[in-house]
Amino acid sequence: MKKILMMLGLGTMLFHVSCKSEHHEKEEETTFYVTNP
Q1: Average pLDDT for consecutive 10-residue bins of the chain (37 residues)?
Q2: Model pTM?
Q3: Are 30 and 36 in contact (CB under 8 A)?
Q4: Domain ranges in the chain?
């Protein structure tokens, strides 16, 4: 379970970096998805 959460966290960080300049709404969606697995 921890490995899955770590992978999600890393994916989220990369997603944040690539999408931060594009859409701020997607950031909230990703955070919501990670906090509610």
Answers
A1: 84 73 56 58
A2: 0.37
A3: no
A4: 2-35
